[in-house]
Amino acid sequence: MKKTLVVLTGAGISAESGLKTFRDSDGLWEEYRIEEVASIQGWMANPELVIEFYNKRRRQLKDVVPNDAHLALAKLENEFDVKIITQNVDDLHERAGSSTVIHLHGELVKARSVDYPDLVYPVGYNDIFLGDRCEKGSQLRPHIVWFGEEVPLIEYAAEIVSKADYLLIIGTSLQVYPAAGLIHYAPSDCIIYLIDPKAERMPYFPDVKIIKGNAGDAVPVLVDELMAI
């Protein structure tokens, strides 16, 4: 039976494909303030602005490709039962070939109903507009978990981490909750790696193996080592 390898990825892995993160520049994201485009209050104040912001991000996503880290993680499925939990809303893991990806914060290539959140629709890299509605007549919004909204898949993600033999944490500062708390669910015998250019020793997790480096460089090396075990 294959061992279970769980990967938690953050903005750092996508940044290496050319996607900007919202922490790039003093709380700005593509020259917008976060509260304007990533909160329910921003949506209520100016839904047209929010829709256009995510339309722009969807167009950007269309023009980038998975990097070496995404591609290396997909290779792990040859030897492990791999489950990727990502804080990212892009589809780069899927395009790299990973088959099980849990998106904690939603998916840019989907839209959902404002009034019926279980009604979710694929939109690919196409724009959505004010006036686009679900079959029940409700406006569509980006399928994104905004600040202040519940993270519906967090309990499922915690259950997955609780069964991990290996946990790889890649490209995240472990500062955004509740995702940052997932490490606490790892079993005591789970082997944990943290890969990030700014990775530091974790006082509460002294056995975590720290790899300071960019995901595109460090992940392929680690993947080769794991597959040789």
CATH architecture of the largest domain: 3-Layer(aba) Sandwich
In sequence order, what are the helices and strands, one letter per element? EHEEHHHHEHEEEEHEEEH
- Gross morphology is elongated
CATH class of the largest domain reads Alpha Beta
Q: What fold name stands as the CATH topology of the largest domain?
A: Rossmann fold
Percent strand? 15-25%
Number of helices: 8
| Radius of gyration of CA atoms, rounded to a whole number | 18 Å
Description:
This protein is α/β, with parallel strands linked by helices. The protein folds into 2 domains: 1-19 and 66-105 and 151-229, Rossmann fold; 20-63 and 110-144, SIR2/SIRT2 'Small Domain' (2-Layer Sandwich), CATH 3.30.1600. The chain contains 8 helices and 11 strands. The strands form 3 sheets. It has a 6-stranded parallel sheet, sandwiched between helices. Strands 7-6-8 form a 3-stranded antiparallel sheet, covered by helices on one side. Strands 2-3 form a two-stranded antiparallel sheet.
What does this entry show, briefly?
With 229 residues, this protein is of the alpha/beta class.
